[in-house]
Amino acid sequence: MQTDAGHIKTLNIKELLDNKEQYIIPVYQRNYAWEAKEIEQLIQDVIDYSIHYKNRNYYIGTLVVSVEKNNGNVDFITIDGQQRITTLSILSAVIKHKHKYVDMVWLKDLNLRFASRTKSKNSMDAVIMGEFNDEDYEANIKAAYEVCDRELIKKTRENGISIQEFAEYLYKYVTILRVPLPEGIDLNHYFEIMNSRGEQLEKHEILKAKLMECFNGYEPRHRNECEACFDLIWEACANMERYVQYGFTLKQRHLIFGQDNWSILSVYNFDELVGRIKGTLSEEESSHALSIEEVLKEKLTQREEESDDSPDRFNSVVNFQNFLLHVLRVQMANDEVALDDKRLLELFENQMPKNETERITFVKDFVFNLLKCKFQFDRYIIKREFTANTDRWSLKSLKWYMAGKVKNGVKYVNTFGEENGDSFDSDNRRILMLLSMFHVSIPSMVYKYWLNAALNYLFHHDEIKSTEYIGYLEHIAKSFVFDRYLAIQPKEYYDMVYNDTRSTQRTIEQLDLNKVRYGQIENNLVFNFLDYLLWRRYKDAEESRVKAFEYTFRSSVEHYYPQSPINDDVDRILPEYLHSFGNLCLISHDKNSRLSNFSPQAKKEHYSKSAMIDSVKQFLMMKYTKWSPEEIETHNKEVVDLLKENLSSFFAG
Asked: Is 312 found in the same domain as 218?
């Protein structure tokens, strides 16, 4: 009867509840357990979306089911999503009986049954009748009916919408993703797994299933090949802590990333990738659309890989959901694609074409671009590396090699220059410094426009040359600092990344230098970029501590000459000197809280004992024999002059 019962399907709430399909809650499911707070939140969420996102879908989650054929009909055994479908059924019954002006003629009966639970069945019968008598009902179901009745009226009034408007949005635009399990799954075992994890699908997992729906119209064999390749790419990219090559079998790695050392992406689009690796797919991988068992739980066994890689060796600067938005923004070059992963589903929905053919092209392009961007991300974007009881920033590539009897040895090597070790003069170190400078200055996922800039540059260059990459990263740093944070007329991030010219000639008249004074500095990148310029200038002339300088998460602006000296012999100075950029540096909160009111000499003695420096600027400030308004003015002129010398930017590629 149901030709698409075994496929992932998006349903609006009317389609879910209209009684054409039956949902059964199995006996091993726990009882209905939602309380007032969950129900209230559901109603409020629907109201919020109906107000702020009119005519747009609101994805309420997933309904994981097992398909069961019954005398020519199809029943859906509800494995995950009982709480939502039960609440939606109760809420709909309340609207039907308490607000009769709403057209609910389509809701003739509930299509939700409880297997072998008489009390639950009687309770839901009372729900659909809109009348509870003195029978022994399931307490939570009866309470949910009362909460829905009370809160629906209360919250619609508070938010200024009618119940009619609420219902129209609920039944047309609120959607749920129905995901069938593959045949042969042990449901009792699967349910135990679900209970032990205790989580719903994350947004990126819902998005994955939504995108894969586009292949439903293909003939079965081709659909299965496309879905299997899509799944391979997605899962290979989803682990941001692991290099993407490890998401494929050894044979697939050679086919996709080159026979020599896995250092190139040797396919150019999704269809070519499918054609190249479809013969490597196991029967299990290519026999079904999507194994939700694999989506919802961690795989018990990893794909075949011979590696000395430790799963905790690398730490990414971005999570997968946010990375998906970076890829989408690069693909679409559209300012409407925000980097806010809380809006992941909405942002993708807004960008996907409505036309079926165009939608398929979009999905194929996206998943291939995801692979390409993750491959470039692994090679050309920093990670935090943990080895030998130390951790530091690294910029490394995964390299495969032949070595005697070892058929597939792998090692991590610097992406540019020397394979091992970081020369203080190497391009690899310089790029590492630039990227870590950006990351510690702007750690928030939502504002990682620097990462989007880098990915956009990498995406559009087949060959990445270190000198040109350095030029681009320095150009973006100068754009952020001079065209936004210090500019009289600040530019938008999108314009700087997607519409900016390769050569930018700036003048000091375009800047507001009051923005480098205390209390007016918009972003710590101003300090960190200056530290980068100072590191470049002085690393050869100064002691090893400058050469070894690394960026850390410092976010406290320190007055080197203290605002409130603790020693009576230290005079207070005028605000024009105290708050001057020449008297400021960036250090950790911990150090600032302990040392902020110490005299410059006391701070100097404290920091001189440290093997590492927090700030190159601070290090140079401590080179002065004494620290008074005269030295503050001298140093301020030195650093401002350095900024002036680096106003303009040029990059070749």
From this structure: yes
